[in-house]
Design a protein that fits this description.
Radius of gyration of chain B: 32 Å
Shape of chain A: globular
Largest sheet of chain B: 6 strands, mixed
Distance between the termini of chain B: 113 Å
CATH superfamily of the largest domain in chain A: RNA polymerase sigma factor, region 2, helix turn helix motif
Number of domains of chain B: 4
Strand content of chain B: 15-25%
Largest sheet of chain A: none
CATH class of the largest domain in chain B: Mainly Beta
Number of helices of chain B: 21
Radius of gyration of chain A: 19 Å
Shape of chain B: elongated
Number of helices of chain A: 9
CATH architecture of the largest domain in chain B: Sandwich
Structural class of chain A: mainly alpha
CATH topology of the largest domain in chain A: Rna Polymerase Sigma Factor, Chain: A
Number of strands of chain B: 29
CATH architecture of the largest domain in chain A: Orthogonal Bundle
Oligomer: heterodimer
CATH topology of the largest domain in chain B: Immunoglobulin-like
Strand order of the largest sheet of chain B: 12-23-26-15-14-29
Chain lengths: 193, 777
Amino acid sequence: MMEQTDEELWLGYNSGDAGAFEALFQRHKGRIFNFAFRLTGSRADAEDVTSDVFVQLFNRKFQDDGRAKLVTWLFTVARNACLSRMRSAKHFVSLWFKDNADGGYKQWDIPDDSAPPGAELGKKELAQVVRQALFKLPVEQKEALILREYFQKDYAAIAQILECSLEKVKVLIFRGRERLREELGPMITEEGQ
Amino acid sequence: MNAQDWKILLSAYADGEVSPEEAAQAEKLLLERAECRTYFEELRKISSSLGMIPDETLSPDAELKVFAAVHKEGSMKPAYWKKGAAVAATVLVVVLVFDNYARHGIQGRLRDASTIEMTAAVPMKPQEQIAFKKSEAVDWMPNMLSRGVQGRLKSSSDDIGDQFATSSFRKDKDVRRGSWGSGALQEKGNVVALASVAGKSVQYEPYYSTSVVNNRAAFADAELSAKSMPMARNGYGYGGNVDGSRMAYDRSLVQAYSREYYPSSQNIQYAPGNTEEYKRIEENSFFDAANDPLSTLSADVDTASYSNVRRFLSQRQMPPEDAVRIEEMVNYFSYDYPQPWFGQSFSITTDLAACPWAPGHQLMRIGLKGKVPSGSSLPSSNLVFLIDVSGSMADANKLPLLKEGLKMMVQQLRPQDYVSIVFYASSAHQLLAPTTGADKRSIIGAIESLRAEGSTAGGEGIQLAYQVARQSFIPGGNNRVILATDGDFNVGASSVTELERMIEERRRDGIFLTVLGFGEANLKDNRMQALADKGNGNYSYIDSLQEARKVLVSELGSTLFTIAKDVKIQVEFNPALVKSYRLIGYEKRVMAKEDFNNDRKDAGEIGAGHTVTALYEIVPAGSFEWPSSVGPNVDPLKYRQKPLIVTRPGNNSEIATVKLRYKDPDGNTSKLIAKTVKRGDYAPYPKGDFAWATSVAEFGMLLRGSDNRGYASYEHVLSNARNNIGNDPEGLRAEFVSLVETARSIDPQPQRQPVPVDDVYYDHSQPVDGSGQINFK
């Protein structure tokens, strides 16, 4: 089957082709899920967000009026869903919880606290460090960076998703990178990996 | 240009988001200044280290969940029409109603959708509700069932779709009693009411059904009854409330279906109308004392089965067989065993009496009582409440009940006890740092603030709770996670094993686990029991405020304080006096005989003041019943030494020796105590507590339809129970009597055929001296 664009599929779905929705779902589910997962840090939340997004798509909440591409719309909906989740959960995060490195959200991996101190960090540990560093970023910077680094969105698309100006996107990405530079320290400033 | 400016420029340049002029500027900077080059290189490294976080994929579980949500919440729009639908084709829609408390039920889960067009035998007017005779309805089933799945058909058109849309299915008690809310399905006797839609195609949503209730009683009679429905299993362990459905149809079809697709019973049995899970129990059989004189079991005091059975009966439903664990029912009640001697952790009590349901048989009772340490010597507690606040916990018999129970419990705490609270819904959070029992207000305030919503990240919750417990660990104290949930963990199968592994590790660290089960229709009884087992803890099912008070207040000491762990019992029967024996209940607690002395083998925990009762049914030597290894069809054994026959068994002759091994809560080496059961201990009729225990056991066997029930009957249970209520301050025993009465009235087969014991008669060549054994012939 010839590869149809998102817009063609959307048109197809609107005219009654069930398979078109399927195709859209398969095409974008990974992205949306990954975006939500990286943003919220919680797999369960990411799953919920993914279903929210596609439920809305299913219910034809996307208006194909040329303002935004379908994919951008998906990201916008996902972003809003993530933010509202993170916002409402925030006040439950205990101030007492000292080990709040990941903002109170637990990753699914079982933390491996058996590694002896000073040992060469393996790839998995490094990934965990990076993950935590990313997670610690303020939400806006995190969103912008994720969209840029993982989804290769251009600044214009990011501005659309974050509903802000191009200039702000540029600054957010810069600031996010500065933060990560500090956080990841030796990994970045010396020979990394 | 200051540092910040060129950094921003380079950052945008790295993304290709600069104008041509800016690009030229950037390139000049890179050429001329080493620090710019360094910075640019660092940007590259940041990018590549971010790349170390791999992409995640939606687990198949989650993907289906998303898919299900989409199809459930999205309305069924014309998108699913086949183009050019036939004009004259009429389509029958079978609609199945979800009933949370349903007596009938098929549960399933949306797996995938395919479109099917079906035509009716009889053309019908659109949107007309017509009742079909069951034989006609049955024609539809094989079509679906031949796929090995069951499903439901929904109409694709809005006007009909809304009427049958899942959102209109009612879950309240009225539906259970037979009114159908949305009116989509009507059932009178064995008739399924259908509605028709003209000219529309339907979407067929198959469920996976992989297991079937194997219920003898259900198939025994011809009338449709609650227990006859084949059940579907959540193959993926998907959590959250599943859009279930209810189908009423001909029992003969059910039988055919089950025989064809599930010739042998599966490991998991479901309660009707929901997605509860119970582990299958194969009842213990009689063992020949000459060949297998040793019976070994782990002493465990879960009581969940009793309150669960009570929950079913109070809703006038027979409980599923595998939800009935006789030992838990017997152990639900407290018995008047003597306190252990000073310095001892346990007292052992043994009794022997005639078996009420099997003439010629005897019953041996073993009773353990755990010590009650004086209040001052009770160690400090480090309690982590781990609370499921997912959406499904919102029902009145779940989170609100739990909150009340916990608040009552908190009143009992002392200043040296600490409470933290972790809750989990879509993710896990710690709500309360360890707070002293002196500050009840903060604890109660935190409990009050809990709200139910979201999905169920149980795995995260458990990890977090154990982490908190470790952080606030009190050496030598009582460190315990108390998990309160309705059972849905929303983890995949592999994650369950990870979880169990983690819990086992933490157990070795000295953190115990108490599991409190709530609610129904979602109760993963098998899972919660498994967790409690792995976590050195107990599992209670809380169905009412009274039960909450029992577990969390009056029995708080025993719920919280373990006085012994890895408690094992081994009984050695004397083949000279015992021909065969059968352990009643404890099927899942049976251990290999070598494990008794093996301290590495985990066993049950006993709380302060707890009692454990085990019952053995004994066939005395001298009776002509065949033990399992020898019988009319088995060749006589050539090489086995004939057991020594005591020519004049006296009152001091030993029937059995009961040994008990246990460890102190923070100990690693077991201690041993023993007691012998003498022939002279025998009394013709069990009395008092012993009689009470036997009536509960007999009731359990009736509920399970046990093959070993002999002449058991509801009437007998009732008369035995009523005569032996004894001291019943909380009315729990009176409640038991009313439960038996309920069971008798709703059991489709109240008059059970007795399972006759083999012809038993006395061998008069064996001299006896007034032992009181019944002489039969």
